[in-house]
Amino acid sequence: MAGGRDSFRALLRAANALLQQRRYHAALSVIKGFRNGAVYGAKIRAPHALVMTFLFKSGSLREKLKSIAQATFAHSRNLAYFVFTYKGLLAAQAQLRGKKIPFHSFLAACIGGWLVFGDNNPINSQIIMYLLSRILFALSRLAVHKGYIPQPRQDPFPLVAALVWGTVLWLFEYHRDTLQPSLQSSMTYLYEDSEVWHDLSDFLIYNKRTDSK
User: Fold this and answer.
1) Do 127 and 74 form a contact (C-beta atoms < 8 A)?
2) pLDDT in tens, 114-159
3) pLDDT digits over 3-31, tens only?
């Protein structure tokens, strides 16, 4: 028993010593990136899938739990693969060039995005749209910082909010099929289901009646 503990401690010391080796830093960074991508993907997707599934999807409890597990696994796997690919390509380019330059990040991420997120499915679609909205905000701020466009005299956010909401509700009312299914479900719940009720039960307590009254 004591020998087993000693062997484990020796193995642990050897692993910790390896982690401190600077020459292995790039490879170890890729491995930890894979780990962090998997964990972060699960943390982000699990609560989202849980809420959306129980709010909007029908089916048995087993079917709902299976759907949550599948969505969480897909998000976790894809993010882990992407981080692994991105960091690996970044390290390879730096090794070949002798230093890191900004284009390396763009190229590595483009390749990773094509390989990992190129399949047009609901999970990837949600991730890409999440990133796209933040990219547009970031590029707008960058354009101001670089002097490509003048600094606004007033905060433009109220105008952006008005245009975003005006556009999305117009699309929902007249071109609904262009919106992502989960957004359609959310808006149906908010703006159409609120038009229908029969009595106090499905006016305040439930969204829809499940009986045949």
Assistant:
1) no
2) 999 999 998 999 899 999 999 999 999 999 999 999 999 999 999 9
3) 677 788 888 887 788 788 888 888 889 99
Q: How many CA atoms lie within 13 A of 98 on its CB side?
A: 0
- Claim to verify: residue 161 and residue 116 sit in the same structural domain: no
Phi, psi of 184 (to 5 degrees): -60, -45
Written as one string, the DSSP assignment of 13-61 is HHHHHHHT-GGGHHHHHHHHHHHHHHHHHHHHHHHHHHHHHHHH--S-H
- Residue range(s) defining the domain that contains residue 164: 156-196
My answer on whether 14 and 102 are in the same domain is: yes
Q: How many domains does the chain have?
A: 2
d(Cα 39, Cα 91) in Å, to the nearest integer?
22
Residue 99 has phi, psi (to 5 degrees) of -160, 165
